[in-house]
Amino acid sequence: MKELKFPPPLWLKEEGPESDIVLATRATLIRNLSSFPFVPTITEDQLAEVASQIEGALESLGQLEHFDQYEVEKLPELGIRYLEEEGTIPEDFPREQRYLYIQDEGRLFLTVNVGDHLRIERRRGGFRIEEGFQKIKGMDLLLETQLDYAFSMEWGYLTTRLEESGSGLTFAFVLHLPGLSMKDELETVQHMMRDEGCMIRPLFLSTSADNETVALGELFLLEALRLTGKTEQEVCKKLEEKVGSLLHYEREMRQQLLKEQRWKLEDRVYRALGVLERARILQLEEALAMLSLVRFGACSGLVSPALRGIIASLMIESCPAHVSMRLEESEKKDEESEAFERARYINMTLNSIKGRDRV
Fold first, then answer.
1. Per-residue pLDDT at 79 exceeds 90
2. Are 88 and 123 in contact (CB under 8 A)?
3. Pair (81, 113) in one structural domain
C-alpha cells in the first residue's frame, strides 16, 4: 500500500470535446462476484476475500504493477475528504476492507467493496462517452477471464442497485451550467431530464442566508438512471442524445445572456478576475462564484480562452481538503488559514498563465 499521491489528477485540467460545458465524463462498469453476498449484507471476512480475489486477478494478468493501490481504512482523514471532494468515494461510507486502484494519473480507477464488489471507472476531461466505455470495457474483459461475475440470463450483470443491473454500465458528467442558472431555467431542465431517466444535482452544495440550497460554482453532476435492460450500445447512444440536447440548451441560454447584457456580464467577469488575481483571503463560496464567472467569460470570448482548463481545475482545488493538503504540516489548518491558502494558490496559478491579457 502506498501513501496518497499529489498533485490532483490530470483529468481535472484536461480539455476535451464540449469542454465549455462538460468538465469531465465518468464512465463506470459495475460488477459483483457470484460466490459472495452483495454489499451491505456481506460480512467483513467475505469483504476481505473479495478484495483478495480481485487483487489476485490483477496480479495474474500482470496488471497489478500498473496500479497504485490504497487501503481506504489506512488513509488519513484528510485523504478521505480529498477523495470525497473528487467523487472517488462516497461520503460517510464504511472504510473497512475497501480498496482503491489508481492508474494513468487518476484517469482510471478500480474501487473494491465500495457500493459493489468492483467498480471500474474511467475519467476524462470533456464529453467522451465512447472513449470512456472502450477503456473500461477492455479492463472488464480482462478481469472476467479470472473472476466469476454474478450474471443472470434474465437480468444481465447483477448489481446492488436494481436500476444499474443489466449491462452494469453507468455514466456521470460534471457540468458547468452558468447559462441555465442565470436564466433561471435549471429547474425546468432538471424536470425534463428526470423524465428522460437522468438526474441533475449540484456537485457542491451550500446554504444561503434565507436557508435555500445553492449550487456552488454552478457546477452540477448529471447521472444516468433507469438503464436496466439496455445494452451497452443503447446506453451510450441514449446518453449521446440526451446530453447533447442539454448542451444545446445551455449554449442557447449563454447566447441570450450575451445578447441581453453583454457589457454588464463583461464587467462582472473582469471584476471577478481582478479579485481572483489579487485577493488575500477567499472563502470557498466566493472563490467558486468568481471562478464560475471567469470560466463563463473564457468560454464566451469575454476573456482569454487559455483560462478555461485551469479554471475548471481550480474549482475543485479550492475545496477545503484540497486546500488543506497544500498547507505544511506545521501550519494551522483552520478556516482563516484555508482562506489565505486558497487565495494564494489561485493568485499564483492565474498570474503564471502566459499568452493572455492581464486585468
1. no
2. no
3. yes
